Write a sequence for this structure.
């Protein structure tokens, strides 16, 4: 197994690892160390059955069942099928419901810790994901802005913080009606690294304690505009067999828009299997 930098400052990649064989604790600790140090971890060249991938996901923490029932893979309620090839994907709110900056699970407690995306089918063009390094973005703030972000307590609900020009995720209204808002500071201290990062600046934050709605939106947009400057971003072009692990406590990400594919064999077909976890990987928690 070889681990190297994905870019100079953001992300790492892994080659020479076959996940069809369950990694032992030593390998898992090496993978976790690389993820937490780099915020993204790309594992290349995988050819997994659905259960292989599911078992790998379980090694990263407690798997989460997402609020969007229509995305769940039959027999694997914690796994989501994201793409543009199924009947459900004709709805742009499903197909393109993640094309805005967001942090997975910022609207829930405990917050989502890790998301992984397995590229099963990659379009000839497009289908990329943008990632934002919220740790380096925080480091680049002035001391005054760091203090302001730390003291800003945002209220979150799934889909409640999308801007007017963004697609609101399908099912958001029903989820909001049934959920209790979650409070998060605009800064998260990572439970493993102890490093501070900006947190939860897209899709779910809809107000900030003590501010008017207009002032809250302006503050969130101010910090999001800072975080999404080019120097903090990485755009990933998937290859079939890529698994991208995302440290959700130190990043944001967004998909790129896609059109409907008429079949899974179409040139523009995109199929991703997503798993998300909360808590620590057992191999890390046991140390």
């Amino acid at each position: 197994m070889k681990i190297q930098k994905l870019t100079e400052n953001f992300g790492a990649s892994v080659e020479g690892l076959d996940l069809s064989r369950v990694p032992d604790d030593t390998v898992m600790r090496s993978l976790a160390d690389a993820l937490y140090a780099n915020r993204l971890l790309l594992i290349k060249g995988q050819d997994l059955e659905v259960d292989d991938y599911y078992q790998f996901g379980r090694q990263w923490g407690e798997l989460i069942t997402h609020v969007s029932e229509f995305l769940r893979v039959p027999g694997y309620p914690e796994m989501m099928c994201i793409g543009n090839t199924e009947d459900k994907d004709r709805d742009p709110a499903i197909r393109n419901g993640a094309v805005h900056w967001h942090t997975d699970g910022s609207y829930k407690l405990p917050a989502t810790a890790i998301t992984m995306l397995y590229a099963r089918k990659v379009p000839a063009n497009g289908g990329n994901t943008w990632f934002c390094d919220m740790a380096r973005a925080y480091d680049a703030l002035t001391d005054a802005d760091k203090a302001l972000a730390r003291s800003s307590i945002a209220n979150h609900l799934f889909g409640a913080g999308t801007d007017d020009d963004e697609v609101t995720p399908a099912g958001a209204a029903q989820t909001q009606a049934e959920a209790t808002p979650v409070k998060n500071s605009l800064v998260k201290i990572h439970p493993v690294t102890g490093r501070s990062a900006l947190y939860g600046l897209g899709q779910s934050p809809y107000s900030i304690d003590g501010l008017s709605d207009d002032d809250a939106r302006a503050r969130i947009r101010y910090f999001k505009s800072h975080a999404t400057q080019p120097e903090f971003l990485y755009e990933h072009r998937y290859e079939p067999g890529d698994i991208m692990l995302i440290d959700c406590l130190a990043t944001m990400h967004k998909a790129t828009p896609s059109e409907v594919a008429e079949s899974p064999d179409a040139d523009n077909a995109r199929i991703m299997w997503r798993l998300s976890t909360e808590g620590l990987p057992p191999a890390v928690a046991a140390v």
User: Anything to note?
Assistant: The helical segments are 25-38, 50-58, 92-95, 134-139, 143-151, 172-178, 213-227, 282-285. The CA atoms of residues 85 and 262 lie 6 Å apart.
